[in-house]
């Protein structure tokens, strides 16, 4: 059902399918090799499991949640895989705003390529200076030039 809907809407270029197990990615990839997957790769064993499926790494973004060290990130980067890190569980506990703002760039410096966060204004503001002038992934970098923190939604920590 999911695959038929994606194909009917010609949405392959706009969809990222969450794959909790290597077999799921393989199932969909064998039916449509245009699909991209957010693969839950939290261990080297999981990485090897995805590698064994035959799904090309160019079709995979790795969701690491909270990486335990740099070895897995480095191994994925060696395969040209972008790594997603979820910030909310750890960063919600940082009450000092300045400390939290310093922590986001550190994740990028430690190898995260994409941050998944509940604090989008805070993350965008903090990471904007790190954005490269030119990138092969430029089409994914969107800036809302008129966005000011005074426009932040109620409850946002950035005003």
Automatic annotation (TrEMBL):
Record Gene3D superfamilies: Phosphatidylinositol (PI) phosphodiesterase
GO molecular function: phosphoric diester hydrolase activity
GO biological process, one term: lipid metabolic process
Name this protein carries in UniProt: Uncharacterized protein
């Amino acid at each position: 059902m999911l695959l038929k809907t994606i194909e009917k809407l010609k949405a392959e270029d706009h969809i990222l399918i969450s794959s909790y197990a290597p077999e799921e990615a393989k199932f969909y990839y064998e039916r449509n090799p245009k699909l991209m997957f957010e693969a839950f790769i939290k261990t080297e064993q999981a990485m090897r499991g995805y590698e064994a499926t035959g799904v090309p790494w160019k079709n995979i973004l790795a969701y690491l949640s909270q990486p335990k060290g740099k070895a897995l990130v480095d191994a994925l980067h060696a395969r040209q895989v972008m790594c997603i890190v979820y910030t909310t569980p750890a960063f919600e506990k940082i009450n000092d705003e300045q400390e939290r703002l310093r922590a986001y760039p550190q994740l990028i410096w430690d190898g995260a390529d994409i941050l998944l966060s509940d604090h989008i204004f805070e993350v965008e503001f903090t990471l904007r200076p790190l954005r490269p002038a030119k990138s092969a992934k430029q089409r994914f970098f969107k800036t809302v030039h008129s966005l000011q923190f005074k426009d932040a939604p109620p409850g946002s920590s950035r005003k």
